[in-house]
Design goal:
2 domains, alpha/beta, Rossmann fold, single chain, signal
Length: 401
């Protein structure tokens, strides 16, 4: 009789345990002690400067793990080099999903690159969170239901602000734009069209470059010949530096706007020549740790302490490290909110339910918000101007939505 009773108790316990065991199998990349996440980064290739984002995100989760991880689990961020080549992005992402069995893809860099892996990740039911791109296409819920834009101002919004500012200063302005020949560059064209409307074709002269091009000198000469008095440089760091230098060398003096993905003093303004960049305009949404305004700011001091401990040999002037820190903090928030339910469904639910989140290294007043119908975490920025040494912010926060 005792034997039968024991069997009954064991059977009841097994039935109680069954749903949990079954549920655990749905949480890929998750064990009792680990959460595996993956990303691709251009640690080599033409935009290797962006590798700083991956380095800082890996370092951030090392800090998180040193403090006990997330809900008792260590975060294992597997960050692979794709050389900024979309086919290699696909190859490395397949490895992350099929060999490493990651729970999600986080902050992979590049518009074309995230586009190349989106359908595959959807077919595997893998979240594609906080993509390393500000391309507005990733806010299209129909095409990218499991993705969110990066924790950065969208490119299209940025271009709208540049066009509005230029027209406010000169209603008869003519525009020239140098842009990367892909969806990253095309988003800036779309932003200009949003503002200029049916005048776009008569007011804008464009030139593009490929990431394999050695220089963009001929494109800049062509744009000067158009007679434009406004120049928008929608380029990654290497080509941004070349553009600034060539404009200076040929004596062209348009009102110049620089994409905020290429405002780094160490990797863009210095290679271009600090004098060449004086007066250039751009936008900011994060705190520049070199700005005297943040010298005694407690949050900036904590960021500098993080850098000193986890990335002691890296350049504090590179705001990519700030962007990586911010993005990793948002993902940490999402994973904490998931609790022990790290299923794809709950990860996406929490990623799309961020409400007025303050990030310590975001400019005051800018908050992170997402919802089931809004996958754009950040939509505000502030204008800034380069003074030959650093960037000076001015004016109120602006939105380009």
């Amino acid at each position: 009789m005792r034997f039968v009773t024991r069997l009954g108790v064991l059977g009841a316990l097994a039935l109680l345990a069954w749903p949990a065991a079954s549920f655990a199998t749905d949480m890929r990349g998750v064990t009792a002690t680990e959460i595996r996440i993956g990303q691709t980064m251009p640690y080599s290739g033409p935009v290797s400067a962006f590798g700083a984002l991956g380095k800082s995100e890996v370092a951030y989760f090392k800090m998180v793990n040193d403090h006990g991880g997330i809900n008792g689990r260590m975060v294992n961020l597997i960050s692979l080099d794709d050389s900024y080549v979309p086919p290699k992005t696909v190859e490395q992402t397949r490895r992350l999903v099929e060999s490493d069995e990651v729970a999600l893809i986080f902050s992979s860099i590049g518009t074309a690159h995230n586009t190349a892996i989106a359908k595959y990740l959807q077919s595997k039911n893998i979240p594609q969170l906080f993509v390393g791109s500000g391309a507005s296409k990733f806010a299209d819920l129909a095409q990218y239901p499991q993705a969110t834009l990066g924790v950065q101002a969208p490119f299209r919004y940025e271009a709208r602000l540049y066009a509005r500012y230029a027209l406010a200063k000169n209603p008869n302005a003519k525009f020239a734009i140098i842009s990367q020949n892909d969806d990253f560059g095309r988003d800036y064209l779309l932003g200009l069209k949003d503002v200029l409307g049916d005048k776009y074709d008569s007011l804008v002269t464009g030139a593009t470059y490929e990431i394999s091009d050695p220089t963009i000198d001929s494109q800049i000469v062509k744009l000067k010949a158009s007679g434009a008095d406004v120049l928008i440089i929608a380029a990654t760091p290497k080509f941004a530096a070349q553009s600034i230098r060539k404009v200076f060398e040929i004596g062209w003096k348009p009102m110049t706007f620089l994409s905020n993905v290429a405002v780094w003093v160490s990797s863009v303004m210095e290679p271009a020549g600090l004098e060449a960049g004086i007066g250039i305009l751009s936008t900011a949404y994060v705190k520049d740790p070199m700005d005297p305004a943040w010298k005694d700011d407690p949050d900036a001091m904590r960021w500098r302490a993080f850098m000193a401990k986890y990335m002691p040999n890296d350049d504090l002037r590179d705001q990519n490290f700030v962007n990586g820190y911010n993005s990793a903090m948002v993902l940490e928030h999402v994973l904490k909110a998931c609790g022990d339910d790290l299923s794809t469904e709950n990860i996406l639910k929490q990623a799309y339910a961020i409400k007025d989140m303050d990030l310590p290294m975001m400019l005051p007043g800018i908050k992170v918000n997402t919802s089931a119908t809004d996958h754009v975490p950040i939509d505000q920025m502030q204008f800034m101007r380069f003074n030959g040494k650093n960037w000076e912010r001015f004016g109120e926060l602006q939105t380009g939505n």
